[in-house]
Amino acid sequence: MFVVLVDAFENVLLPRRVQRHFRITTWFYHFTWRPYVRLARCIRMQARRETMLGYFGPLSLIALLVLWACGLILAFALLEYGGGEHLTAGGQPISFGLLLYHSGETFFTLGYGDITPASGLSRTLSVFEAGMGFAFLAVVIGYLPTIYSAFSQREIEISLLDARAGSPPSATELLCRATGGRDGMGGGALDRLFLDWEHWAAEVLESHLSYPVLSFYRSQHNNQSWLGALTVILDATALVVAGIDGISSEQARRTFKMARHAVVDLAQVVNAHYDPGATGRLTPEDLSEIRARLRDKGLKLNEGTEAEQKLHDIRMRYEPYVLAIAKNLYISLPPWIRHDTIRDNWEAGPWDRVIQAQGLGQIPGERRYPRPVEDHF
What is the number of domains present in the chain? Predict the structure, then answer.
């Protein structure tokens, strides 16, 4: 009983520590997530596989609440069996199975009255268990809305990133659009964008430390994720801090520090481990293409051995963590630069083919892209 109550207390009322020495919750997710991922890997279609992985977060939360309730019911049944005296309406002998049933009906305050506590200790335990049942119901009523409120707040900025960095997002696309790309946001919008994402990274750190189950909640679109958004912001700020002519790096540094703090702490929350064999996400060919793409938008990324070493050092401060988290949570990380021509999420819809066939729905200046059929379902 003590172990269950401490675990529930740390998760619901004292949820601010990065690591705990012993927790039922940690054990629970360790032994349920990996088998679930193995099962999901059997699904070949990405959209359906992501849908199945998205079920884990809500289902695991329900299962964890059931585990806590069962643990408390079992604990009270053991206490009643060890020190209580009970009477049954039918004169049946008291067995542990009957006491387990009595503990369950008392916890959920059913009050059938077929089993009656007959000693002072058993009556005290029954009253205490009934009160704990009410408290458990209050925890469920207050805990679930809080989880979904935090999830909703997290997803708002991720959805806004669609028009600012593409779907899936990339750091190169974010910089191009924010500094005068096809969305025409203007150079001054970049600092405002980084400031918003600095706040978002702080909110994600606070909410995911408080409620680690949020790490398993997937975004509504298959090509978006909270880790992907955080990685894109780190990539974009890394490029700015490494040096882009005409762009101040002051706000980018602050955003990078906050985002890096978030991934370091969250890597501990999801029990991620450093993999020395993990390959880097940025290849020399991609870096050359990034320079060319930024040059087309009037941006000059610093060149030379010293500049490349600086960018490499910045990347090594966060990439091992995001790679480890992505491996644990089975999340695909976004690229530094996109090589495909898939449309953004806002450009896709189930009626687009009909509208395009009629010559409608085209925004002047926008390009048309093919989109995989499976993404419509």
Answer: 3
